[in-house]
Amino acid sequence: MGKIKSLEDLKKRKQDLQKKVDLRERADHPEAYVQIKVGMATSGIASGAKEIYDFLVEALEKRNVEAVVTQAGDMGYSYAEPTIEVTKPGEEPVVFGYVTRERADEVIEKYIKRGELVDGILPQNYRTIDDE
Amino acid sequence: MENVKVTIDNQTVEVPKGTTIYKAAKQIGIDIPVLCYMELEDIGIENKPGGCRVCSVEVEGRHNLAPACATEVFDGMAVKTHTMRVINARRTIVEFLLSDHPKDCLTCKKSGNCELQDLAIKLGIREIPGQEYAEMSTYKTDYSPSIVRELDKCIMCRRCESMCNDFQTVGALNAINRGFDAAVAPAFEMDLQYSPCTYCGQCVAVCPTGALTEVDHSRDLIDAISDPNTTVVAQTAPAVRAALGEEFGMEPGTLVTGKMVSALRELGFDYVFDTDFAADLTIMEEGHELLDRLNRHLQGDSDVKLPMLTSCCPAWVRFIEHHFPDMKDIPSSARSPQQMFGSIAKTYFADQIETPREKMVVVSVMPCLAKKYESQREEFAEDGNPDVDFSVTTRELAHLIKEANLDLKNLSDDDFDRPMGESTGAGVIFGTTGGVIEAATRTAYELQTGQQLNDQIVFEQLRGFEGIRKANVDFNGTPINIGIAHGLGNARKLLEQIKRGESDFHAIEIMACPGGCIGGGGQPLHHNDTKILKARQQAIYQEDQNKPIRKSHENPQIQKLYKDFLGEPLGQKAHELLHTKYFDLSRKIEIS
Amino acid sequence: MHLLVCGGTGCRASASDSIAESLKEQLHHHNMDHEVQVILTGCFGFCEKGPIVKVLPDNTFYTEVKPEDASDIVAEHLVKGRQVERLLYKAPSGEQVTDSRHMDFYKKQIRIALRNCGFIDPENIDEYIARDGYLALGTVLNEMTPQQVIDQVKESGLRGRGGGGFPAGKKWEFAYKNESDQKYVVCNADEGDPGAFMDRSILEGDPHAVLEAMAICGYATGADQGLIYIRAEYPLAIKRLKIAIEQAREYGLLGQQIFDSHFNFDIQLRYGAGAFVCGEETALIHSMEGERGEPTFKPPYPAQSGYLEKPTNVNNVETYANVPVIINKGPGWFSKIGTQKATGTKVFALAGKVNNVGLIEVPMGTTLREVIFEIGGGIKGGKKFKAVQTGGPSGGCLTEEHLDTPIDFDNLLAVGSMMGSGGMIVMDEDDCMVSVAKFFLEFTVEESCGKCAPCRVGNKRMHELLERITQGKAEKKDLQRLKNMCHVIADTSLCGLGQTAPSPVLSTMENFWDEYVAHVEDQRCPAGSCKELMRYEIIPENCVGCTACARKCPVGAITGERKQVHEIDQDKCIKCGACLDACKFDAVTIK
Question: Does the pTM of the predicted model rise above 0.90?
Answer without folding.
Answer: no
